[in-house]
Amino acid sequence: MPKAARLASRYPYYLANRPVQANTDLPVRDKYTGKIATRVAMADAKAIDAAIAAAARASAPMARMKPWQRRAVLEHCVATMRKRRDELAHALCVEAGKPIKDSQGEVERLIDTFRIAADEATRIDGEIVNLEISERTNGYRGFVKRVPLGPCSFITPFNFPLNLVAHKVAPAIAAGCPFVLKPSERTPIGALIIGEVLTETDLPRGAFSILPCRVDDADPFVEDERLKLLSFTGGQVGWELKARAGHKKVVLELGGNAACIVDADQSPRLDFVVGRLISGSFYQSGQSCIGVQRILVHASLYNDLKKRFVAATKKLKAGDPKDPKTFLGPMIDEAAAKRLEDWIGEARQAGAKLLCGGKRKGNMLEATVLESVPHGAKINRMEAFGPVALLEPFADFDAALAVVNDSDYGLQAGLFTDNLAHAMRAWDTLDEGGVVVGDIPSFRVDNMPYGGVKLSGFGREGIRYAIEDMTERRLLVIRDP
């Protein structure tokens, strides 16, 4: 941890591009020590209404910005974030409890995401539509361009407080949409540092507001009709928000309980497979929407993989996320760890076998491996969102696909196989937003379409795909004289 990296004693919120230190009502705790690390200003209902009004006024000047101007804003963010890498990583490590190496990795993804958006800002193209499809339309020409949708509302969760903010903010700027953002009150600092960087740009007044606030004051982010799009990343409460969103477009990313299949032909590279499964299962204490939760292993490999997987799990170093050697840090709070501890106990009472882990101290939960978990157990059916992996053997590949599909979620699935027919059958059969062959479902690159089906939500992130949601087609028809 660089000595220069430290938090400020307090952080403002950002209202219509400007910092406002209205109060210090929100304490942000170091998730490992539990001590208050800094304090953040909380926006009230009046500030939120003012932010939405400012975003509405900013719609026209944002839309008038040329693509090169939007790109310049994003390129400034990239350059500044590179200079502030250590600060951003330290803030993330403290406020989220994310191990410092993983925090540094998320900062690099933050930079990548803004860089991709800078490129895409100048690629928002239209099309020519051939209207002369019959005699009556002779002489007609059609043209389509994409225009900004208008003010957008963003609500982001605690687990990737830099990159999940970036996946909403960066495409909005590229598309020319003003926005209001509610970051998680548990991890607001990263978003506020992004706000500070945006104040240094030439965005029109009102183009952005970043407002940590109480849940009781947050209704306008969902319900205000001046907002034209709601993009929410979080839990199943997203469906309730959708029902309250009125006429605005809605994009939801609501998590999953990702499965990964290890096919019969993987014996020669089992160590590689185990290493990737360990990463996917326990990275960031399992607090990832596409963290590996269910592992289905061909019966011929099951005992060997189980032995290696459990041994590797027991070797993981848990502790202070500021220590570069730490792999497993704390969960976001004690309530989250206690919930998962209860689910582990419930599964064991129903017949599951504990292979390792399972103990909890405060918000630190050991990396846990279970087998023989009943399919109806909460830890199998629900999103664990913690450091727990479930092992299960299979004999028939199609039966394994059916087990993966036997879920209310469908974000991403992984498949280790060298069998092309199996890979294509998985792609055709699995009811998932994405299928990753040769790796874990936790794989994500920031320019790919990312999102799910079923209870995992709908719509796609990934800069180009988010821009599609943040713009709408406008048709021009010209009749030759």
Largest sheet: 7 strands, mixed
CATH class of the largest domain: Alpha Beta
Q: Tell me the overall shape.
A: globular
Percent of residues in β-strands: 15-25%
Structural class label: alpha/beta
Rg, alpha carbons: 24 Å
Unreliable stretches covering 5 or more consecutive residues: none
CATH-level-2 architecture of the largest domain: 3-Layer(aba) Sandwich
**Number of DSSP strand runs:** 25
Q: Estimate percent helicity.
A: 25-40%
Instruction: Write down the overall mean pLDDT.
Output: 97
Distance between the termini: 70 Å
The strand line-up of the biggest sheet is 15-18-19-14-13-21-22
CATH topology (level 3) name of the largest domain: Aldehyde Dehydrogenase, Chain A, domain 1
Q: How many structurally independent domains?
A: 2
In DSSP terms (H or I, runs of 4 or more residues), the helix count works out at: 15
Write out the CATH superfamily name of the largest domain. Answer: Aldehyde Dehydrogenase, Chain A, domain 1
Quick summary:
This protein is of the alpha/beta class and 481 residues long. It contains 15 helices and 25 strands.
Descriptive overview:
The chain has 481 residues and is an alpha/beta fold. It has two domains: 10-254 and 456-476, Aldehyde Dehydrogenase, Chain A, domain 1, CATH 3.40.605; 259-445, 3-Layer(aba) Sandwich (Aldehyde Dehydrogenase, Chain A, domain 2), CATH 3.40.309. Helix content is 38%, strand content 21%. The protein has helices at 45-64, 67-83, 85-96, 100-120, 163-175, 189-198, 219-223, 237-244, 270-282, 299-314, 334-349, 378-381, 397-405, 420-429, 463-470; strands spanning 10-11, 13-15, 18-20, 26-29, 36-40, 127-129, 140-148, 152-155, 179-182, 208-210, 229-233, 249-253, 259-262, 294-298, 353-356, 360-361, 364-365, 368-371, 388-394, 409-410, 412-416, 434-437, 453-454, 457-458, 471-479. The protein has a seven-stranded mixed β-sheet, with helices on both faces. Helix 14 (420-429) links the parallel strand 21 and strand 22 (434-437). Helix 4 (100-120) runs parallel beside helix 5 (163-175) and helix 9 (270-282) crosses helix 10 (299-314). The termini are far apart. The mean pLDDT is 97.
